[in-house]
Amino acid sequence: MAKEAQRQDGKNSGKGRSIAPRGNGQQPMRLESPDPISFMRRFMGDIGRIFDGFGPGAMWMPPVEMLEKEDHLVVRADVPGLSKDQVVVEFQDGQLVISGERRQEQGETADGFYRSERIYGRFYRVISLPEGVDPDRAKATFANGVLEVTMPATPHPTAKRVEVQTESVA
Questions:
Q1: So what's the architecture of 64-152 in CATH?
Q2: CA within 20 to 30 Å of 118's CA: 2, 95, 102, 134, which one?
Q3: pTM greater than the 0.70 cutoff
Q4: Residue 49 near residue 119 (C-beta atoms within 8 A)
């Protein structure tokens, strides 16, 4: 019956399918077939609107790397544009916590034009530490926008292979 209504209406463009009008004289409602590109655009637009209110002052995460160097564990965090006074390093419950804030500078705009792709606001990173790290003897240094936290770590125990013997039956 719906197909018959479409044929009579003569407005089926083939893009989707129509639902025949009810007896109230309204035009048929069009159900578009799912287009993945349109769907993703709508989805990204919806997500953008959700996070619109999180502009300056929003959280950001500096990238970090963690490595073993001799008998120390080293954690480096990239925090360009900050000074050492804007970064806080703490240890809580076997975790390294790095936090701080990059504040947006209020400057003049030349000829009314301003564009910024930098991220401003607070950051907070929590890094779980392996067993054997001594946070009481940790040292933190800051140079060229890179925070480096070095902590003594006990070496990992090496595996020892035990040869399996056969029992001699007497």
A1: Sandwich (2.60)
A2: 95
A3: no
A4: no
